[in-house]
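Bumping with the actual sequence this time:
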Amino acid sequence: MREILLVVHTGYAHNRHVAEKVAGWFAAAGVRLRVVDDEAPDLNPACYSRVVPLGPEAAVGTELVFVLGGDGTLLRAAELAHPAGVPVLGVNLGRVGFLAEAESDALAEAVERVVHEDYRVEDRMTVDVTATRDGVVLADTWALNEASVEKSSRERILDVRIEVDGRPVSSFGCDGVLCATPTGSTAYAYSAGGPIVWPDVQAMLVVPSNAHAMFSRPLAVSPNSVVSVEVDPDGHPAVLCCDGRRTFEIPPGTRIDVRGGRTPIRLVRLRHDPFTDRLVDKFALPVHGWRSR
């Protein structure tokens, strides 16, 4: 029998009610749902047929991960999907207290498309991240959006040196340095002044945050390159944060290496609209001519 992992932002009653509706549609089509053990207590038992431990095995054997919630919930679901290599379908419910007719129709369509396997899967680049100090591995992780190396204290400046493929590029004091994917270019990297990169462009972005330097422009490098951020051994400690979810304390003298990820995140796409249109919608960009004529 086909099985799907359901991930829900259970903090909102609205989302829990939507989960019940979605579960009913899938059950009627003969598709079983599983949930992770930290969400099961918040959901009606009718929403699922199996509870699995939260961890790298949660999505193994499923067809896809069906997500009800916002961007944070999608990133949480990506953590579960990444080890198994299964696709992720996100339905952003936001914080609305009701499901409008149009939204309900879209949700029903999403379920129907999954039931009939009428969807396409788009691979999104990830980055693999390793932090080492004196030959000791302090962190070995990954990110879909970005890996950020940031100062751990507001009052202090983080002194770093940037290298690409083992060659030094620049050193400066800053609030932090982001190494982002094309997917992450519209998230934290965008807020830090980085460029927007189309998802099918294979590149890594290096975006300094509030750098005290003449040369502090964002860089776009090959996904086959290795971007290294070295924290001054005589400076202050830092924090390595991946997608805002996996955080590691980084002592002075640590080297953080970032490279194109071995395993992409597979996102389910139901619509065929180009990224340009999605970008315009996301940022409400004016596209009707000068002065809205």
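The tokens above came from a reply further down the thread. The first helix runs from residue 13 to 28.
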